[in-house]
Amino acid sequence: MIRGERLSLTITGLAFGGDAVGRAPDGRVVFVAGGVPGDQLRIEVDEAKRDFARASLLEVLSPGASRVAARCPLSGSCGGCQWQEVALAVQRAAKQAVVIRALGRLGCTIDPLCAPSDGFGYRTRARLTVGDGAIGFQARRSHRVIDVTTCPLLHPALDAALAEARRAAFGQMDPGGTIAGLVGRGDLVHLALEGLRAGAAATARTLIGRAGIVGLVLDAVRFGARDIDTAGASEPPFHAAADGFAQAGDTGNHALRRIVAASAGSSGRTLELYAGDGNFTRDLVAAGHDVLAVEGDPAAIARLRRNVPAATATAEPAERAALRLASQGEKFDLVLIDPPRAGARPLLPSLARLTSRLIYVSCDPMTLARDARDLAAAGLRPIRATALDLMPQTYHVEVVCLFERAG
After folding, report:
1. pLDDT at residue 306 above 70?
2. 211 has a pLDDT exceeding 90
3. How many CB atoms lie under 10 A from the CB of residue 317?
4. Catalytic residue numbers?
5. How many CB atoms lie within 10 A of CB 354?
6. In contact, 268 and 260? CB cutoff 8 Å
7. Domains in the chain, ordered, with CATH?
8. Going by C-beta distance under 8 Å and a sequence separation of 6 or more, which residues neighbour residue 126?
9. From the CB of residue 329, how many other CB atoms can be counted at a distance below 10 Å?
10. Cα distances (Å, whole numbers) of residue 113 to 95, 100, 260, 299, 360
11. Mean pLDDT confidence for 118-131
């Protein structure tokens, strides 16, 4: 098998990262975007290595039983989602399999995957990128921006607000700029625009009052509402902003919070690292935990103090705080971490000194598995993990993993 070669391929599975997978006649694994399990494809080899190859899809010779019609005409070119033509049940089985492969061999019990969304209209948070004559999501494995006027994954309020922002921002932002949106209670929307050209702020400010938009952050300058209430109907207010971090969908986030809270149990002295605006902190405090919440972003820690005043909040990078607390001999009944995609490797030596019980929330099962091996070597074994499908139509999967000290 060489570059440029064309051949037929039967798709047998889906890989973390979004590609479909099959085996070439010579036995090598072939990764190809756009395939669906059961498909018979005509492909062209783009890259051939000793053990694997990457290829482009030329033609679907025979569709698999799990192939469905995409709702979006941009499916296949837009990189915002990768699996819209894969039946939802097959997507979820693939995600569960990824987590089992990553953690199962470490002796961790894997619970059934939690699927809180029906697959469309779930995103209450999204970020569009500005390209050359386009505003939307980047193409798969490319920095080229696909122009996206509407997206079926977005909550209707967010879709409408981003459409307004696109119209106002077209020609007013430099390539590489971004438009982020967040939906809150009452379908109100908060926006953050970065990369405005000189003199464009006055036009952008006219967005307030249109399509439910109540607040704007324009290159770090705030107009209108500084943030919005994203709490559920029966919950105390919880303030968040479009230029901060939030999970992709509100329904999925409620499921994630429930699983984290169940793993945490009630009461205890708890250290929370990468605490953000206090998404998990509020539930820990409500359950009786004495929480020290650590967050490196000053804006986020200010919102956390407002959202969860009963927690002790520290504005400090997680790695530095963990090392400092471990050096001081501090001990916690529980440590909760929700690190970025790169994982928590700099924290690991400190974590094993701080606690005998750890909850690790991860958006990358491979990074989690890497860190889990190191934690196990330090005495904290992965006990139970739950995967959550927080972003249907994409390969992304969230995992909540509980660790306990061996013996």
Report:
1. yes
2. yes
3. 15
4. 363
5. 20
6. no
7. 6-67 (2.40.50.140), 89-117+248-405 (3.40.50.150), 125-233 (2.40.50.1070)
8. 151, 153, 154, 158, 162, 180, 181, 248
9. 8
10. 8, 10, 14, 33, 16
11. 96
